[in-house]
Write a structure and sequence with these properties.
Layout (H helix, E strand, L loop, with lengths): L1 E4 L2 E7 L5 H11 L6 E3 L2 H12 L10 E3 H8 L25 H25 L1 H11 L6 H11 L6 H12 L5 H8 L7 H10 L10 H6 L2 H10 L9 H6 L2 H9 L16 H10 L4 E4 L6 H16 L2 E5 L3 H13 L5 E4 L5 H13 L4 E4 L7 H8 L3 E6 L17 H11 L7 E5 L4 H15 L4 E4 L7 E7 L5 H12 L7 E5 L3 H13 L4 E4 L5 H13 L4 E4 L12 E6 L6 H8 L9 E7 L1 H14 L3 H15 L9 E5 L1 H6 L13 H13 L4 E3 L10 E2 L4 H8 L6 H14 L8 H8 L3 H13 L3 E2 L3 E8 L5 H22 L8 E5 H10 L7 H13 L11 E7 L2 E6 L3 H24 L7 E9 H9 L2 H6 L3 H14 L4 E2 L10 E5 L8 H30 L1 H13 L2 H8 L13 H9 L3 H7 L8 E5 L5 H14 L8 E5 L2 H15 L7 E4 H9 L10 H16 L5 H12 ...
Parallel strand pairs: 3-4, 5-10, 5-11, 6-8, 6-9, 7-8, 9-10, 12-17, 13-15, 13-16, 14-15, 16-17, 29-33, 29-34, 30-31, 30-32, 32-33, 35-36, 37-44, 37-45, 38-42, 38-43, 39-42, 43-44
Antiparallel strand pairs: 1-2, 18-28, 19-28, 20-21, 22-26, 22-27, 23-25, 24-25, 40-41, 46-51, 47-48, 47-50, 48-49, 50-51
Length: 1677
């Protein structure tokens, strides 16, 4: 406590502690003899406290002078007094903290300045001073002001009559005469409100505003101003009102126009622009709809500028587009109006601070603000200092779910307007848009009525522009660019004036169009949101000035551009709505002269627009994912009865979206998260409060700024000045509120991280202590404790970086390489790093990418680009040594910080997620104390931030408050409970998205009508904006209203569902979400087609993200086929669908690579088991296991499984873990769609079990669908197959027999062969054959030859002979060889495909390519250089399949190596003749003609159930399309006897065999590696001639099989080139008549068993695998 006497200011009274009553008595004595008491806010604050503490004080009887009360009277003009904070509470501007003596001296100085100001006023405006005296000096309780003004005026207070007269004189030139008279007649005229009103009126018309504390304490003061200057009287003789409330005069004053725009007109003939302005100036609530280019901005600018001049009120304009804001500000500035400002997220820190300051001080008349700013505390505090004169909602259609651009932030506007108005009446609301159909108008008016009780006066000017000529021109993708050029040539002369805009749907397209136009000689440029602000500004300016004639732009251009002479607008692609089209087309002809608008229409563009619309949408599951992320951030153990506060940026929330559900796009993800939070507020799951920034409740250690200046001398300028600005703000801050970083950033002009560094520097030099709270969750004393995690992660990252450098040692800064994560993960795991999973490595890469980003010049150590889920392009942005040093410093800092956090725990505390609380100052100090870190670190705060984030990213700790230090954040209260965001909560947003679909269909119909007749298109547009929705739809879409709901065009819809039968259509178009489905599909019923079309439907019709879809095929060949069909349906979208086998997925999940190893089948099983363990999180706490699964799933939402009946136990567990079968939370389960047929389960020998498909419905509560229409076989074949399969028990399709498809119902039961074959007549033939296998072979093949002669179109490639066992096919093959029938044994596949010489040559070539992307053309060149052997042909087939699956995207060579390793597991050569195959190998194939050999069908394999053989025979039968021949041997049982009784079955005896049996007993054997001495050539030195001879051998070369030393050897041209294994035994009674090279394998030293290591003499050698032909030896006569 302190006091001064004016007559002795050098001897103050001071009290700093002690006995208060004694001090007050001393103060009373100190004041003895004073004439009056002076203080700042002394009336409202100090005197009440003194009266409460010591009511008998004599000084309380002194006249009181309050400098706060006097200040607005003495200094009403901007700039205000330098010692008074004009905004906020009007308090004194302090320079020291807690220095009452200094405060007293400042108050005295202020009082003296006030006295001077009033004495000056006595000379300049004595009437006003007299009025102040009369108005403020009459109150007995405030007699001090009478004394003061007597002294200043040298005159007594006026009489009432004199006082009213002098007030009237002051009002006369500045207000409405009639309202002035009414005010003067009020009994309550005298007092402070009128005084403050007169003070403001004395400076009205400029940029001065009434202090906010005046409006708060004396609300009648602003009411008086509003009544006197902003309320129109009806007196035509009132000069004031005629001048200031006449809209035309105001228009003339500010804009120089004498009249408003003549069109559109109201019904009474008044220009609508004028009518809207008049209503707004009369403070009506208005909705104005005016076409683009008809002056909407003037509708709010005229009233706003008038209101600002009249009352100093601020008009707030909510606008969704930054470009539009900038245009408005620029346009008014060009007219000399500088009081229009914009506030949005793109402003720099100094720019933002300047705008906020100008708002507070009154320099701003119109503030354009983006909706999200309404939650910003800095904005709210600034606006609180001003009176809001009106609210303008530009582009108000954003408020309506039926509008084309529904924005959730707009929904908050009503709440903010209502809350900010307080007890005062609502300011007038003016809503403006260029496009609003009836549903939108109704939605807007209902919103304001519901939320604010406001009825909007509607002015609807329609959407038509008479000066624009609209046309639709058909084009194609190939001719689009030339059509644009021709339109420009026809409408613009290249030398003339006027410009053109070409609107494109994508950024890439704008660049292509602009480049093309430049090549054609046009001065053109492109424009889109991805350009830097500088480029945008330059491009806009060049276009407006005419330097650029043509702009190719997305819709980001134009909304903020007011170029009057745009003569042509071309839409290169169809826009998303008629509203958008008219708005964008409305950029043309703004000078009211004729202009042309042309829409180039291409049917394929509709699909692109549907895709773009879907990409902009926020699906239900993303909102649910944001909710889960927020709940994670709130803590796993949230209190059940109260909300938890989360301060988080959108990026932080996304980092907690473990499932990657939210679409990652750096351009949109921030908006997506904010939108999701807004929708989560609706059902009260969260509450978003004011945006807050990290608060620094800092403790100052210096008494004054002067003391701080001494310590700041060591810092250079201008940084020293910035530090001083921070201190100045802290000194003057309210200690109860602290200071926000927003305010600190504004005061210092530093960034958020710059403020953090400044606070640290101030702490280091002892000026303050930073006690900002920081919290984290750690794990201590448990299995996977934070310390163990730290050690493991440190080791893994260090090894990872080392491996990266080892792989690319010569990579220089600025160069890039491609990283195949799976291969790197395998290498690291081979080195003992078990945690080296691809997902984990990618997280480490992302951390390395962030290293150094906060430093100058703001780049990370690397830059990443994800090519596909496993392939990352890495651009090196630091040299290897700098990268390693940066990462090492970050890890070291993280280790120290972790130690500090663990040390904060109480002793002996153990557990997971233990809460640790510390301060930022302590964290800084921990690093400062480490001398090694201090020596290396340039910036401790940045290192703290980076190290903490790394600890969080790697899940070593979980950060709480301050997760991202000093970052602007949303303040979100996460409400208690587990309720999710449900379908009903999403309903309104879904309505909007459904409306977007309708809008695209309407736009497409507009284009089609425009092609036929432009008048029809104009009528459609008129009806769209004039008729109700129901009437419009019934008029323009009378036939198929359902089509309006489809998120795809007619052509796409027809391709996906048009050719489906009723059953298929129901499955493909199932609209249920989060549902599991099992499709039981009979043979030939199109089950793969249904699966593919279901995927296409999800992507094209439901608009699911392709990256969220996982299709699992039973082998790579099936995966290729799925991809091929998908690409035919949905083009490039197919590339983003994940199509894998179960093994391929497992390898991706765990990062297994078999490209460099001899893979065994057991290795693939182990991979599946490991992947399941990983997904289940075995050995991990439940919560961490759940999070790991969700990360690994990487955003998958749909799993589609083909051939589910063939899954074994490992695949079953993998699919169950993926789908979340055992999870309780339904939201975290994936939708599972399986296709299969238990009747076709035939792989029990490989582990597949029919039980898994039969328990699917129970496992997943799935809905069953049946596919029973067969598109493959004839009725006769189908009937026979149905009878055969009807026997097994527990069939799932029992009661659902297979039938012929509807289109073939009327065809003959035997198909075309009823006429072609006079014997069989298209019936299933049961051919009775002799008992010997050779006889059966001849008789069956004789029948096939008979059939072939009946059909001139016969192709052996479409024919198959199927047997139960391979050996039964040997005599068939021998018959074919003897009869010159092209035949192919399906078991003649590559022995050890990966080790084929040809495969290894390709692999070696790929390895030399390194990690660089492989160009498809290079691969073509390599393959063309190779020979034409069978294995090179096989590799070419493999490469063709690879391209089908992966497209022509350049991928690293390692990617192809991994793909080949899996593809080679099940080789399926292209059929080049009659296929001889076992029933187990025929799955997935079909043939025109099929013969099934008899024998061995009743045998059961290991683990097979009793019905397995029947199912196997059924599979064989159902491969046939046209003819089916079933051989029946005596006493074998043959086919099911029931078949013989069927009308479509023909039983006959085969003609007796005629070919000598010795020809049919030939055996053609391709040996396997097990039959060969694999180490034979390896025992010779590398220089031995044997290796050269092997090198020259090719498949097909002749060999000789000889017996040597009791072992069989292979000779070529007299030299031994190989030896067979001792275990090899030739077929008995046969001799080898022919030997040739089947394949040549490559072996390596490491392949051999260690016990033979000493005998191996070379590192690499080749092995001959022979093909041998054995026959009965000739009989010697």
């Amino acid at each position: 406590m302190a006091a001064l006497r004016g007559d002795c200011i050098d001897k103050p009274f001071l009290f700093s502690g002690g006995h208060l009553p004694d001090a007050l008595r001393e103060l009373d004595s100190f004041a003895e003899g004073s004439e009056f008491l002076v203080g700042h806010n002394v009336i409202a604050f100090d005197i009440p406290h003194l009266q409460a503490a010591a009511p008998g004080l004599r000084l309380l009887n002194l006249p009181v002078m309050d400098t706060l009360r006097l200040s607005p009277l003495a200094f009403p003009r901007n700039p205000y007094h330098k010692l008074v904070k004009h905004y906020k509470d009007g308090g004194l501007l302090r320079f020291n903290a807690n220095d009452p003596e200094l405060d007293a001296r400042i108050c005295l100085a202020l009082f003296q300045d006030e006295e001077k100001a009033f004495r000056h006023l006595r000379e300049e405006n004595p009437d006003l001073l007299t009025a102040f005296h009369w108005l403020t000096g009459s109150c007995p309780e405030e007699k001090g002001f009478d004394h003061f003004f007597r002294m200043v005026r040298n005159s007594a207070i006026s009489t009432d009559e004199e006082g009213r007269a002098v007030v009237a004189a002051c009002l006369a030139p500045s207000a409405c005469v009639n309202h002035g008279k009414a005010v003067l007649e009020q009994p309550s005229l005298r007092g402070w409100p009128m005084a403050y009103a007169l003070a403001w009126l004395s400076v009205a018309g400029g940029n001065s505003v009434m202090p906010p504390w005046v409006r708060h304490e004396f609300p009648e003061a602003p009411r008086l101003v509003k009544r006197l200057r902003d309320t129109r009287c009806e007196d035509p003789l009132c000069d004031w009102c005629q001048e200031h409330h006449n809209s035309k005069r105001v228009l003339k004053h500010w804009f120089g126009f004498s009249e408003f725009r003549p069109a559109p007109l109201c019904e009474d003939g008044t220009p609508m622009q004028e009518a809207i302005v008049n209503a707004a100036m009369n403070r009506s609530h208005v909705l104005g709809i005016l076409p683009t280019g008809t002056g909407k901005s003037v509708c709010y600018q005229v009233p706003a500028l008038s209101r600002y001049e009249n009352t100093g009120a601020l008009t707030l304009v909510v606008s969704p587009l930054v470009a539009l804001m900038e245009d408005q500000v620029r346009g008014l500035r060009e007219r000399g109006i500088t009081s229009c400002l914009a506030l949005n997220g793109l402003l720099s820190i100094p720019e933002r601070a300047d705008v906020l300051e100008r708002i507070r001080l009154g320099d701003c008349a119109i503030l354009l603000v983006s909706p999200e700013q309404l939650r910003n505390r800095g904005f709210r505090r600034s606006v609180e200092q001003r009176e809001i004169g009106a609210w303008i909602l530009d582009e108000v259609h954003c408020l309506s779910k039926w509008g084309q651009d529904f924005r959730t932030d707009y929904r908050y506007v009503g709440r903010f307007i209502r809350e900010s108005a307080g007890k005062e009446g609502l300011p007038p609301v003016l809503c403006l848009t260029a496009t609003a159909k009836p549903d939108v108008i109704r939605d807007i008016t209902d919103y304001f009525q519901r939320t604010m009780g406001v009825t909007l006066l509607v002015f609807n000017g329609g959407a038509n522009r008479d000066n624009l000529d609209f046309a639709v021109v058909e084009t194609t993708l190939e001719h689009k660019f030339s059509d644009i050029h021709q339109l420009l040539e026809s409408q613009l002369s290249q030398e003339g004036s006027g410009g053109a805009i070409v609107y494109c749907a994508t950024r890439k397209q704008t660049e292509k169009v602009a480049a093309f136009l430049v090549s054609m000689g046009w001065p053109a440029a492109h424009f889109h949101a991805g350009l830097t602000p500088e480029v945008k500004k330059t491009t806009q300016k060049r276009f407006i000035t005419g330097e650029i004639r043509v702009i190719a732009a997305t819709n980001a251009f134009g909304m903020g551009i007011d170029k009057p002479d745009v003569r042509l607008v071309i839409h290169a692609e169809i826009p998303g709505s008629l509203e958008n089209y008219l708005q964008e087309a409305g950029r043309a002809g703004r000078d009211q002269l004729p202009a042309r608008c042309v829409l180039l229409y291409c049917e394929k563009d509709i699909e692109q627009q549907f895709g773009l619309s879907a990409k902009s949408q926020l699906p239900l599951h993303e909102i649910q994912a944001v909710l889960r992320a927020l709940r994670r951030m709130a803590g796993r153990h949230r209190p059940p009865d109260k909300p938890v506060e989360v301060n988080a940026t959108p990026g932080e929330i996304l980092s907690n979206d473990e499932e990657n559900e939210v679409e990652r796009d750096k351009n949109t993800e921030d908006t997506r998260v904010r939108t999701a939070v807004a929708w989560l507020e609706e059902p009260h799951l969260v509450s978003r409060e004011e945006n807050v920034y990290q608060v620094f409740p800092s403790s100052l250690h210096v008494p004054s700024l002067e003391d701080a200046d001494v310590r700041l001398e060591t810092f250079p300028m201008p940084y020293r000045g910035q530090l001083r600005s921070i201190l100045k703000l802290l000194v003057s801050a309210d200690p109860r509120e602290g200071v926000t970083t927003d305010e600190l950033m504004g005061a210092s002009r530093l960034s958020s991280s710059g403020v953090a560094r400044a606070m640290h520097d101030l702490e280091r030099c002892g000026i303050l202590s930073n006690d900002s709270i920081f919290t984290a969750l750690v794990h201590s004393g448990v299995e996977n404790a934070s310390r163990k995690r730290m050690e493991a992660t440190t080791a893994l990252e260090s090894a990872f970086i080392g491996l990266l450098q080892e792989t690319e040692p010569d990579l220089q800064k600025g160069e890039s390489s491609v990283l195949f994560l799976r291969r790197v993960a395998q290498r690291l795991r081979d080195d003992g790093y078990e945690q080296a999973l691809p997902e984990r490595l990618y997280r480490l890469l992302q951390s390395i990418e962030s290293d150094g980003k906060s430093e100058d010049p703001g780049i990370g150590s690397v830059r990443l680009r994800k090519i596909d889920p496993e392939t990352i392009q890495v651009l090196l942005q630091r040299d290897w040594e700098s990268l390693k040093k940066t990462a090492e410093l970050r890890r070291t800092g993280a280790n120290v910080l972790l130690g500090h956090l663990l040390a904060c725990l109480p002793p002996d505390v153990r557990g997971s997620d233990l809460l640790v609380t510390t301060t930022l100052g302590n964290l800084y100090a921990a690093l400062e104390a480490d001398l090694a870190i201090k020596a290396q670190a340039k910036d401790i705060p940045r290192l703290v931030e980076r190290a903490l984030l790394w600890l969080h990213e790697q899940e070593i700790v979980r950060l709480g408050k301050g997760m991202i230090v000093f970052r602007p954040a949303m303040r979100i209260l996460v409400k208690p409970g587990k309720r999710s965001f449900a379908q009903e909560d999403y309903a309104e947003l879904k309505d909007h998205y459904d409306e977007q679909v309708v809008q695209i269909h309407v736009m497409a119909e507009y284009a089609r009508q425009g092609l036929a007749d432009s008048r029809n298109a104009r009528q459609l547009a008129s009806d769209y904006f004039g008729l109700s929705r129901e009437d419009f739809v019934s008029r323009w879409f009378p036939k198929d209203t359902k089509a309006l709901k489809r998120k795809t065009g007619d052509a796409s819809w027809e391709a996906i569902v048009g050719g489906l039968n009723r059953e298929q259509h129901a499955i493909v178009s199932d609209e249920r979400e989060k549902t599991n489905v099992l499709v039981l599909a009979g043979p030939g019923s199109g089950k793969t087609r249904v699966l593919v079309h279901r995927i296409a439907y999800l992507i094209r019709v439901n608009r699911e993200n392709p990256r969220g879809i996982l299709a699992l095929a039973y082998n790579r060949h099936a995966a290729v086929e799925i991809r091929r069909r998908l690409r035919e349906l949905i083009s490039d979208d197919a590339n983003r669908v994940t199509v894998l086998t179960c093994h391929g997925l497992a390898m991706r999940l765990i990062g297994a690579s078999f490209a460099e190893t001899m893979v065994q089948e057991s290795d693939f099983k182990r991979v599946l088991v490991d992947a399941v363990r990983l997904l289940k999180g075995e050995g991990m706490p439940l919560e961490e296991a759940d999070e790991q699964r969700e990360r690994l799933l990487s955003g998958f939402r749909w799993i589609l499984v083909d051939e589910y009946q063939d899954v074994g136990p490992e695949q079953y567990e993998l699919i169950a873990a993926l789908a979340g079968r055992t999870l309780n939370d339904s939201e975290r389960k994936l939708s599972l769609f399986a296709v299969g047929d238990d009747d076709q389960n035939i792989y029990a020998f490989a582990g597949a079990s029919v039980k898994y498909i039969r328990q699917f419905q129970e496992d997943y509560q799935a809905r069953l669908f049946y596919l029973t229409q067969n598109y493959r076989s004839t009725k006769n074949i189908i009937r026979a197959a149905n009878v055969l399969i009807d026997g097994p028990r527990n069939r799932m399709k029992s009661g659902h027999p297979i039938v012929i498809d509807g289109a073939r119902q009327k065809e003959p039961e035997g198909g075309l062969w009823e006429d072609l074959d006079p014997i069989g007549r298209g019936r299933v033939q049961i051919l009775n054959v002799d008992g010997a296998e050779t006889a059966q072979a001849e008789q069956v093949m004789a029948e096939m030859l008979r059939l072939s002669r009946l059909d001139s179109q016969w192709i052996w490639n479409n024919t198959a002979v199927i047997a139960r066992q391979w050996k039964q096919l040997q005599p068939v093959y021998a018959y074919c060889q003897a009869s010159n029938i092209p035949a192919q044994l399906a078991d003649y596949d590559a022995p050890q495909f990966w080790r084929l010489r040809e495969t290894q040559l390709l692999v070696e070539w790929l390895s030399k390519r390194g990690p660089n992307p492989l160009n498809p053309a290079e691969l073509d060149v390599f393959l063309k250089q190779q020979s034409t052997g069978p294995w090179w042909e096989l590799l070419r087939e493999a490469i063709d399949s690879y391209r089908l699956e992966c497209g022509d995207i350049p991928l690293p060579a390692l990617h192809l190596k991994e793909w080949l390793a899996e593809w080679g597991r099940e080789i399926r050569k292209r059929q080049r003749g009659l296929l001889l195959v076992t029933a187990h190998r025929v799955k997935g194939l079909e043939f025109d003609h099929v013969a099934i050999l008899d024998g061995k069908w009743q045998e059961h394999g290991r683990d097979e159930d009793p019905d397995a053989s029947r199912r196997l025979y059924y599979v064989a039968m159902t491969r046939a399309r046209k003819t089916l021949t079933l051989a029946s041997m005596p006493q074998s049982g043959g086919p099911d006897n029931r078949l013989q009784e069927l009308p479509g079955v023909f039983v006959r005896n085969a003609p007796p065999p005629v070919m000598p049996s010795r020809e049919l007993e030939r055996q053609y054997i391709a040996l396997t590696p097990a039959h060969v001495d694999l180490g034979f050539a390896g025992r010779f030195s590398p220089r031995n001639i044997l290796h050269r001879k092997l090198k020259h051998l090719q498949p097909g070369d002749a060999l000789q099989l000889l017996r040597e030393n009791e072992q069989w050897v292979l000779e070529h041209n007299g030299s031994i080139v190989g030896r067979l294994a001792r275990s090899f035994t030739p077929p008995p009674k046969l001799c080898c008549t022919l030997a040739r090279v089947h394949a040549i394998l490559v072996r390596f030293r490491g392949d051999s068993d260690p016990i033979y290591a000493e005998s191996i003499n070379c590192d690499r050698w080749e092995v001959v695998i022979p093909e041998l032909v054995f026959a009965i030896p000739p009989v010697n006569h």
